[in-house]
Design a protein that fits this description.
2 helices, 3 strands, three-stranded antiparallel sheet, Alpha-Beta Plaits
């Protein structure tokens, strides 16, 4: 990953959340690179991985689109009113 062409979008805690966000962004045509806090997978996948920080990077030319999508990703869907 070239730091001159990629920009940090956000950080999340836990690789599962990072992968879901990555899939969402890629489905909307935004390439994504994930960088774990230590740079390597956790040995303790069910304990430590939930707490590890993952930085999410996108190409600089897609940053504004990615920010808009991040807001959408973090906004809960409207709850349907009971009939």
């Amino acid at each position: 990953m070239d730091k001159l062409t990629w920009e940090k979008l956000t950080e999340v805690f836990g690789f599962i959340e990072a992968e879901v966000l990555q899939s969402f962004l890629q489905a909307n045509e935004v390439p994504v690179e994930l960088l774990r806090e230590a740079g390597t997978p956790s040995t303790y996948a069910f304990t430590m991985d939930e707490m590890s920080r993952v930085d999410v990077y996108v190409p600089k030319d897609k940053l504004e689109r990615a920010r808009d999508l991040l807001v959408l990703f973090n906004t809960p869907p409207d709850e349907e009113e009971p009939k």
